[in-house]
Design brief:
With 307 residues, the protein is an alpha/beta fold. The chain contains 11 helices and 10 strands. The longest helix has 17 residues. The C terminus is likely disordered.
Length: 307
């Protein structure tokens, strides 16, 4: 299996594949800042479930070339390129945090290929009608998103030296976030194994450039390029009621507009609890999909739901 693919415009996308190589394929779209080596279930879990987990660095992160001016919708072409390289006809998609809107884009624009999609602790579009976008959001996030929306050049100028400092010491990012973390978030990120995965993820994400992070924020606060209401494949919206980074009102807004959305809001959970929810979400994504002898996937007999 390749560790990178090339897009039609010549960009390199760095890819990572774990789990059962003959299993049911699931794309995991990482958070922000993030990379293909971000937190995910252990390989043994994936083998036991018969799941093949595919991750790649979004443009500008890790080992992937930058795509200046990218929008959320641009993820669709990149996911399709990776799927084609792996000879995958059908697949599921899950995105966490900054990756969640990108998973919804795939669900909207690749209905003939995406079997199911899940968005964990994601955001609604910045121009979401009737939504107070910043309500319930931590002050640091409000400042970051507001600056990106109103003065993108100033935002980039601020984030470049900050990214360099985090690249040298990835733990710095967790320390920066600490004042906004709930007690439950602190418990999750203090777990030794989880913390190790997160620090490796941050280091890989920013090792070559700050622009993956910069472009992610600009894409999330700009026009997404698709309408969530156009999604017709089954979607799971998983959210944490105590999330101060992506408030639960964003999931409620999306749920009211995505026709086949199933919503799970954990009343006791916070933002980083989504990392612990991911195994159960993967179970839901693959529960009614079988791998055919040719390697393609298609609907199978349902065998019980995660929710």
């Amino acid at each position: 299996m390749p560790d990178h693919v090339r897009t039609a415009d010549g960009r390199r996308l760095r890819v990572d594949i774990t789990g059962d190589p003959r299993g049911r394929p699931v794309f995991l779209l990482h958070g922000m800042p993030g990379s293909r080596v971000g937190p995910r279930p252990r390989s043994m879990f994936l083998y036991q479930r018969g799941a093949q987990l595919i991750s790649y660095d979004r443009p500008g992160y890790g080992g992937s070339d930058r795509k200046p001016g990218r929008r959320v919708v641009d993820v669709v072409q990149d996911v399709a390129v990776v799927a084609d390289a792996l000879e995958l006809d059908r697949f599921a998609v899950v995105g966490r945090s900054g990756g969640a809107p990108h998973a919804l884009a795939c669900a909207a624009l690749l209905p003939h290929r995406v079997t199911r999609a899940a968005a964990l602790v994601g955001l609604a579009p910045r121009d979401a009608e009737g939504l107070d976008w910043f309500a319930g959001m931590a002050p640091h996030n409000v400042d970051e998103f507001h600056t990106a929306f109103t003065d993108p050049e100033r935002f980039a100028a601020r984030l470049i030296p900050r990214s360099a400092a985090i690249r040298r010491d990835p733990a710095r990012l967790l320390e920066e976030l600490r004042r906004d973390l709930t007690d439950l978030d602190r418990l999750v990120v203090s777990d030794t194994a989880m913390r190790s995965m997160m620090l490796r993820n941050f280091r890989e994400a920013l090792k070559n450039s700050p622009y993956g992070w910069i472009d992610d924020v600009l894409a999330l606060t700009g026009p997404w390029g698709f309408d969530p209401a156009d999604i017709r494949v089954p979607v799971l919206l998983w959210h944490a009621a105590k999330d101060v980074f992506s408030p639960a009102s964003h999931a409620s807004w999306l749920a009211a507009r995505i026709p086949r959305a199933r919503t799970v809001v954990d009343p006791t959970a916070a933002h980083f609890t989504a990392l612990r929810a991911l195994p159960k979400v993967i179970d839901w994504l693959i529960e009614d999909v079988v791998v055919r002898p040719s390697g393609t996937t298609g609907p199978g007999a349902p065998h019980g739901g995660a929710w």
